[in-house]
Protein 1
Amino acid sequence: MRTLGFLLVTAGFLAGSLAAVLDETQVRWNWFIPAVAVGIVGLVMVRMSQRQQSRAVERLTSNMQAIEQSLRRIAENMARLNADKHAIDPYDMRHRIEELFADDLNTFVEARESIAHSYGLAAYADVMSCFAAGERYLNRVWSASADGYIDEINDYLDRAKEQFAASLDKVLSLQASPRPA
């Protein structure tokens, strides 16, 4: 849209200039006014394109902040839950998981595509590999809690904690590195 806008501005300017100099005594208004209108339409298109681009950058930045914050809370809650796992009734573990993680997991999932837009598909795959494994392990903990399997709860809490911490580390290292063009 931006390129088309610049082309319209150029075409409008050239056509208007031509209409102004074709006759030395008067301007051909029936050519000049449409040429100016084409240039104005092009200018509007360029401005709209710039506005959309700035909004997209703002949205990506906002989503990346949401991703970092949600992963940070998930990692902190996993560490706390893992530390307290022996004091929590195994059948209550699934309720604690729902309380602690549902909102942050949803926030991350809604904003996750911004990783690919900001840093590329390889970075997205790298982060999502760890995140998906952590989420899968957390689901295993939930299922083991419903069945009362204490050993499985303890084992998969450790695994989930490691995966979510790795996912957070990968996002933080992405943000510390320059974004690809």
Protein 2
Amino acid sequence: MIWVFSGQRVLRWRDRTAVAVASDSGSDAFDFLFALFANVFQMRDWIRASRRDLENDVMALFRDSANLCLVRDLTNGSKYMEVASYSIDGAATVAREYVGGDENRYVVPIPGGRNLEGMLLADGCIAEIRSFMEAKSLL
């Protein structure tokens, strides 16, 4: 039931975002990435609210996953002017990186000097949440 409402919405945002990123649509790509990350992070609240008995497991999933922690930081960073409490990077953001020719990619710079492609981060988070939900018979 949860996946029908919130999970399907996340997938719709994922599809919209993929189109904006692939077309290198500038502001739309940034906006859609932040909206996608916010919807991914909100899955934590949807699952917790619908299955109170799994609250500790849900919190552990979102606490122990590096990908989901980074999405938390991105979401909170886009919501608040300053983030006092963060998991990975208090300055987490999305950047447009030139890769040659006429191509760019949208990345999340992470501590240590690496850049993680935004869509790969989102897809990884979606897969982790789906696996968790499958394991808990929530799909």
Protein 3
Amino acid sequence: VFGLGRGCFSSEVVVRKEFAASIPQNLSFVEAASIPLVFCTVVGGMQEVAVRNEEILVHAAAGGVGVAATQLAKKRYG
């Protein structure tokens, strides 16, 4: 499984089941571990500043947070 919780950079953590998910078969442990932090960062930012019908500019779209921002912006706002 992968997820997000306190002590995320530890080798073992305890999290509520709502904050954990099964790793898809096409992802490695390392790839799955990168998902929660970057997507939570983006979701938090978009909730604070993104407004429907406005343009979204993603700086450094080649990094983890930038890729997540691009994917979520396309999904949410077309």
